[in-house]
Specification:
Arc Repressor Mutant, subunit A, 143 residues, 3-stranded antiparallel beta sheet, single chain
């Protein structure tokens, strides 16, 4: 690698790191019985709270029928709760269940431990460089 990495190299590294992290997360979710599409739905619900199926579809760029099928499977495992609108019975709202809130908390705790384990393989010098680079990136993104 050159002394002055180009923007293209940095973007490529981001892409590679993103794929690696996504692969690791996918394995973790699958070990806990969730597919990647199910985990995407759950992540959206955790971030946004109760949503209509159509809103989830729009957010994830998937059809209503696809989201409805995913929600069916999540509901069978008590990970989501569906409720119908009092004003319009055609509208269905979905929210995470208390069971999933507990799972989510434990999953993220385990994910942090897994990342710490991966980072423990780095030398102190590598850790210093990673910290400096990420700190600089955070500053640049904040501008």
């Amino acid at each position: 690698m050159q002394n002055n990495p180009s923007e293209v190299e940095i973007v490529q590294l981001f892409s590679e790191i993103g794929r690696s992290l996504k692969k690791t997360m996918r394995k973790s979710f699958e070990c806990n019985g969730l597919t990647m599409p199910q985990s995407m739905v759950m992540s959206t619900l955790i971030k946004r709270g109760e949503m209509k199926i159509s809103e989830i579809s729009s957010e994830l760029h998937l059809s209503n029928s696809t989201i409805s099928g995913i929600i069916d499977r999540l509901e069978k495992h008590d990970l989501v709760i569906r409720t119908r609108s009092e004003q319009d019975r055609r509208i269905v709202y979905v929210k995470v269940s208390p069971k999933y809130v507990d799972f989510h908390r434990e999953f993220h705790h385990q994910a942090e431990k897994d990342l710490q384990k991966i980072l423990s393989r780095a030398t102190p010098e590598d850790m210093r460089k990673i910290l400096e680079g990420l700190t600089a990136l955070k500053k640049i993104l904040g501008q």
